[in-house]
């Protein structure tokens, strides 16, 4: 049973399972992310933006308006992909505050760590009430442990539980992730154990297969549907590909043709136009976005705007300044042990599209404390506005940088995203 919210309460710490103690974060209960990160203007989701050059006739159904996972309705049919070191409660609330994202997902979380009540692992499961609907993603290779972890997740109040079959990291494939795609009998045991353990919807996220000689996405999808899995997200690269090469959307289409449950497409969606093409080519029920959301958190409202008008706005320097400084203040207030590292990591992503963004990244990387990081951000944007001699809100995205992509080698900071 999930704990009911008390009268007047705006955020909750989920009910704790008898065997779980979750370290307490500082609750930022009265924070209105839409006011912190965006100042709405007209129909747009962020202020002082300049229109993108990308325009087309009005699209009534670029992506489906919604999809259902049993009795759970996701509206719009867009999902934030689980990303290690990225999709914690603070980042998820940034995405929720900007609008346009139907479903949030946690970082992938070790089932072994959950059942052993490891503090570092349980930190990943913290969420606030305004994050619903939200899915907890688990990884592991023991059917019994996965089942117990799923029960604990259900007790915490999550709307659904997801099994990670996609992570390519070496330390994960030894005990789950995409490594399970090589062992169909074990995979079936895990599906059945988790399905029997929970009443909330069960979903999976998988890759195409281990390598090009073992493309098993369709077989896994059929197996999953047969034992009660209720939605499937497909990243159509193999484990051996990692994030290299091009995602083969034909695999998403093949899975969609093979099952009757919802299929969510993932991989190589960097712009609203990409999302449109994926839906058209694969007939998937929803789209999931990972790495592009880390570099361009506005992609979800951009997709909504594009679907409604055939065009979308790109964030200005002011939009990026407000989001970056506001997010950093949240990280600092939450007193996270890795605050400086996380700030540097996100500077690498969020600053792309800002004119002279390389200077900002260098300044942030040179900082040693959270306050120094904040000061470097404020100083950069003040200087930039002064040099240009204009209101910073009128400064649009530099056209020589793609707002949905970062460099292949961020300056001095490892910023690898794993989903």
Q: Descriptors for this entry?
A:
two-stranded antiparallel sheet, 9-stranded parallel β-sheet, globular, about 425 residues, 13 strands, 16 helices, disordered C terminus, about 15% strand
Question: Mind explaining what this structure looks like?
Answer:
This protein starts with 32 loop residues before the first helix and ends in a 31-residue tail after the last helix. The chain has 419 residues and is an alpha/beta fold. Strands 4, 5, 6, 7, 8, 9, 10, 11 and 12 form a nine-stranded parallel β-sheet that branches. Strands 1-13 form a two-stranded antiparallel sheet. A two-stranded antiparallel ribbon has the order 2-3. α13 runs antiparallel to α16 and α15 packs antiparallel against α16 (370-388). The chain is built from 16 helices and 13 strands.
List the helices and strands and how they pair.
Layout: H1 33-37, E1 50-55, E2 67-69, E3 72-74, E4 78-80, H2 89-98, E5 104-105, E6 109-110, H3 111-115, H4 119-122, E7 134-139, H5 143-155, E8 160-165, H6 170-173, H7 184-197, E9 202-209, H8 217-226, E10 231-238, H9 249-258, E11 263-266, H10 272-282, E12 286-289, H11 291-295, H12 299-309, E13 311-314, H13 317-333, H14 339-350, H15 357-366, H16 370-388
Parallel strand pairs: 4-12, 5-7, 6-7, 7-8, 8-9, 9-10, 10-11, 11-12
Antiparallel strand pairs: 1-13, 2-3
Helix pairs in contact: 5-7, 8-9, 13-14, 13-16, 14-15, 15-16
- Classify the helix fraction into a percent range: 25-40%
Structural class: alpha/beta
Note the run of SSEs as H and E.
Answer: HEEEEHEEHHEHEHHEHEHEHEHHEHHHH
Shape: globular
Q: What does the main sheet amount to? A: 9 strands, parallel
**Average pLDDT reading:** 80
Radius of gyration: 21 Å
């Amino acid at each position: 049973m999930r704990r009911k919210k008390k009268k007047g309460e705006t955020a909750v710490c989920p009910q704790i399972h008898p065997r779980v103690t979750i370290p307490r974060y500082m609750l930022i209960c009265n924070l209105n992310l839409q006011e912190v990160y965006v100042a709405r203007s007209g129909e747009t989701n962020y202020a002082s933006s300049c229109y993108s050059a990308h325009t087309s006739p009005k699209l009534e159904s670029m992506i489906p308006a919604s999809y259902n996972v049993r009795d759970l309705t996701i509206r719009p049919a867009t999902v934030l992909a689980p990303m290690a070191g990225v999709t914690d409660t603070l980042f998820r609330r940034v995405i929720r505050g900007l609008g346009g994202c139907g479903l949030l997902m946690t970082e992938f979380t070790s089932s072994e760590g959950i059942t052993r009540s490891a503090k570092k692992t349980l930190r990943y499961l913290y969420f606030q009430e305004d994050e619903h609907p939200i899915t907890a993603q688990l990884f592991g290779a023991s059917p019994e442990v996965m089942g117990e972890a799923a029960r604990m997740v259900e007790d915490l109040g999550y709307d659904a539980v997801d099994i990670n079959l996609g992570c390519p990291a070496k330390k994960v494939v030894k005990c789950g992730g995409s490594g399970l795609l090589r062992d169909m009998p074990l995979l079936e045991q895990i599906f059945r154990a988790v399905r029997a353990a929970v009443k909330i919807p069960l979903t999976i996220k998988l890759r195409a297969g281990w390598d090009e000689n073992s493309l098993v996405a369709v077989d896994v999808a059929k197996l999953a549907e047969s034992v009660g899995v209720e939605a499937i997200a497909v990243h159509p690269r193999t484990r051996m590909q990692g994030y290299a090469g091009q995602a083969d959307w034909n695999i998403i289409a093949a899975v969609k043709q093979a099952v009757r449950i919802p299929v969510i497409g993932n991989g190589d969606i960097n712009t609203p136009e990409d999302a449109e093409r994926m839906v058209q080519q694969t007939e998937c029920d929803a789209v999931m976005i990972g790495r592009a959301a880390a570099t361009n958190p506005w992609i979800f409202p951009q997709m909504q705007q594009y679907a409604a008008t055939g065009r979308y706005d790109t964030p200005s320097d002011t939009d990026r300044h407000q989001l970056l400084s506001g997010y950093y203040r949240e990280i600092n207030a939450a007193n996270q042990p890795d605050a400086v590292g996380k700030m540097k990591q996100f500077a690498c992503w969020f600053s792309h599209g800002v004119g002279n963004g390389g200077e900002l990244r260098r300044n942030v990387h040179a900082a040693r404390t959270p306050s120094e990081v904040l000061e470097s951000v404020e100083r950069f944007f003040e200087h930039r506005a002064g040099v240009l001699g204009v209101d910073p809100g009128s400064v649009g995205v530099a056209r020589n940088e793609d707002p949905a992509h970062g460099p292949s080698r961020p300056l001095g900071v490892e910023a690898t995203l794993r989903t």
